[in-house]
Amino acid sequence: MTGDKGSNRGESFDDPFCDTLDITFDKIGDDTATARMPVTKSHLNFAGVLHGGAVFALADATAGAALASKTGADGSVALEANVSFLEGVDAGETVIATAEIAHESRKTAELTVSVETEAGMRVASYRSRGYKV
């Protein structure tokens, strides 16, 4: 992933895994990123709500994009990550992840991501640490 800091690269961000989940990026730059994922039947778990793995993938990709806004495509790897699931989401809704760099040192960064529905209901909280290669 390469590009200019502060650019809106939703159309040019090429991530095959994100493509399989229909994740698109609205903004990547200035130490932040925003991405969205429409919830379809293929995103649901056995209980009929949005699968936690899909939420995690959305949050993780958004956090990675926020850090990449500083380091470039191959400039970081995840060291650890955790997610708290707060609410279930039904098919037909869209979830939006907003990531920011919360703390940064020379070689690592802490990232936080909030995942919400378009209506503003908070779905998950995510935190990770990335290593700048």
Automatic annotation (TrEMBL):
Span of domain Thioesterase: 48-123
EC number: 3.1.2.-
Keyword set, alphabetical order: Hydrolase
Pfam families assigned: 4HBT
Name listed for the protein in its UniProt record: PaaI family thioesterase
UniProt keyword annotation of Hydrolase present: yes
SUPFAM superfamilies in alphabetical order: Thioesterase/thiol ester dehydrase-isomerase
One Gene Ontology MF term: hydrolase activity
Species: Natrinema soli
Record PANTHER family: ACYL-COENZYME A THIOESTERASE PAAI
Ribosomal protein among keywords: no
